[in-house]
Amino acid sequence: MRLRLPWTGNVSEITIAPVAWREDRVRLLDQTKLPQAEVYLELEDYHDVALAIVEMKVRGAPAIGVAGAYGIALGALQIMAETKREFLTKLEDVFTTIGNTRPTARNLFHAIERMREAAEKAGDIAELRGALVDEAKAIHRDEAEASRKLSGHGAELLKNGDTVLTHCNTGPLATAGYGTALGVIIHAHQQGKKIKVLATETRPLLQGARLTAWELKKMSIPFTLITDTMAGYFMSQGKVSCVIVGADRIAANGDVANKIGTYTLAVLAKEHGVPFYVAAPTSTFDLSLPSGDRIPIERRSPDEVTHIQGMPIAPAGTDAENPAFDVTPHRLISAIITEKGVRREF
Ligand code: MRU
User: Of 53, 55, 59, which is best to mutate to test ligand 1, by the most ligand atoms within 8 angstroms of its C-beta?
Assistant: First the structure.
C-alpha cells in the first residue's frame, strides 16, 4: 500500500507495505524485526503464512485478515484436484489452517467467509484459482478503503492542539491500509492540525514502542512514548485530550475486544472525564455475538511475559498469564468510528 501523505505544505510519500501479493507469492514485512531492520519475507506456501500470523510477523486485525486472504489464495494455487468438489474439500483444510492462527481478530474470519463465498460462486478449477486471488486483492482494497474513510470521520473529532493517547499499533502496519486509531491521527495531522501523540509501549510485545513509534517517526508526527502504567498519571495531570484505540472484535452491543490494557485505559478515561474513542472498520464487527463476554480471547505463551525479546526478566520457572486482549464494555466508550461515520449510541 503506497500512502500519499500531504501535510504542512509538503508532499511526502511513504511506503509502508506490511502485506502484498507479488507474482503468486505473499510478501510480508516481518514486524518482529522492527524497528531494528526492515526485512521482507516472500512466502510460497500457505502454511508459512499461517505461521507468520501466529508468530505476529504480520499482526493487527485488518492486516491479519488481508494476510489470511492472500494465504488462502496461495493455498488455492497449491491445491491439486480433478473436480470442483474435490477442490472445495481441500480448500476447507486451507481455511482451517488459516483460521486456527489468531482467534480474536474478527477481520480474519470475515476474510475467510468472503473467500469461501468467492470459491462457491466460481466455475471450473482454473477460474476458481483466479477468483480467489482476485477476492483476496478485493479484501485488501476494501480494508484499505474502509480505514481511509474512517480516518477522515475520526479526524473531525480532533482539535488543533490535542494530545491523543493511543495503545498498541493501529497504523498502516496493522491495517495494510491507512490505519484505524492511528489513521485518525494521521488524517488530522494531514489536515494541518497540531496533534501530539502519547503512545503506550504496550507490554508484553511492545507494539507501541517498536511499531507505533516507528510509524510516527517515519511520518514526522510528534509523539512521546510512555509505559502502559503511566497513562493514569498523564490523565490525572490533564495532559490527555482523548484516547483513541483500535479493535480486534466488536460485539453487537458495542463491547470491544482490543489489545490487553485497553480496558484499563477506558476505566481511567472515565474516571478523568477523558473521551474514549474506538476506531475500526465494519469488518471488525461480529453481530453474531450479543455482547463482549462471548468474544474469544487469545491466550499466548507465558514466555512473552517472562521474557522481553528473548531475554528473561523473571526467575526461571515463574508462572505467568498472557491474555492478548481484553474487553471494554460499551458503557465506557464515547463513540465508535467506522467507515460509515461516528456512532455514539449502542
Ligand atoms: O496482537 P496484535 O498486535 O495483533 O494486536 C493489535 C491490536 O490490538 C490493534 O489495536 C487491533 O488489531 C486493531 S487496529 C488495527
Answer: 59
Q: Sign (positive/negative) of CA torsion 271, 226, 337, 262?
A: negative
Number of separate domains in the chain: 2
Task: Mark whether 115 and 196 lie in a shared domain.
Answer: no
Cis preceding-peptide flag for 275 (omega within 30 of 0) = no
Q: What domain range includes position 106?
A: 11-148
pLDDT in tens, 286-305: 999 999 999 999 999 999 99
Q: Given this model, what pLDDT does residue 346 score?
A: 75
Residue nearest to ligand 1 atom 2, measured at CA: 60
Ligand 1 centroid to residue 129 C-alpha, Å: 30
Q: Whole-prediction pTM value? A: 0.95
Active site includes 293?
no
In the listed set 124, 148, 172, which residue is the last one of a domain according to the structure?
A: 148
